[in-house]
Amino acid sequence: MGLTLWKSYNEQPRGRFRAAFLEWQRAAVAVRDRVPPLIDPHRHDAGIVLEWYRAHRPDAIVTRNDNVLGWLREAGVRVPGEVSVADLDQSVSRVPAAGVAQAYGRIGATAVDLVVTQLHLGQRGPVAAPQGVLLPPAWVDGPTVRAPAAVLPRGAPRRGRAAPR
User: Fold this and answer.
1) Within 13 Å, how many C-alpha atoms sit on residue 145's CB side?
2) Which of 3, 141, 148, 138 is nearest to 68 (CA)?
3) Rounded to two decimals, what is the model's pTM?
4) Is residue 160, in this structure, part of any structural domain at all?
């Protein structure tokens, strides 16, 4: 699996997308099967993404860039036949795609609840010990991800991988 993001999108959560991806690879993917993430400081262009795809041949790509899907298809890559593509924020995607639907309504409602709680407790100004609230997103099936195959054991060769270096 590969990850491709704009640098600015990865930096919004302090680099956590890239960090989580690398940790997942370290824990679950044989070294020879790892695909380096493409974190582009600019706004990607087709050439950069296609060069990365051809060099590493991931079986799936996770992205937040709606253009990646179009660039792959324009280059003759069959999606989801050759590669699955999942959107990290499918709820705002401009194209039909599988991916993660962020819970923006629940996020807003939770923020209001937190402020109301602070007001009821008489808290004003910055909080001495800020707390975070994590609301899980939902997976949304779509036409860009193929049906799951049998899970292969760690280290088993996977279809479509570049030859080990």
Assistant:
1) 20
2) 3
3) 0.78
4) no
- Residue 121, both tokens: 């407790």
* Structural domains of the chain, count: 1
CA 108 to chain centre: 22
Helix (H, G, I), strand (E, B) or coil at 10: helix
Range of the domain at 94: 2-102
114-129 residue pLDDT tens: 999 989 999 888 888 8
Instruction: Specify if 127 maps to a domain.
Output: no
Span 74-122, pLDDT tens digits: 999 999 999 999 999 988 888 899 999 988 899 999 999 999 998 999 9
Picking from 89, 86, 104, 93, the residue whose alpha carbon sits closest to that of residue 142 is 86
Quick one: 138 exposed, middle or buried, by C-beta within 10 A (0-12, 13-18, 19+)? exposed
Name beta bridge partners: 101: 138
Cα distance between residue 136 and residue 156, in whole Å: 31
Q: Which amino acid is at 4?
A: T
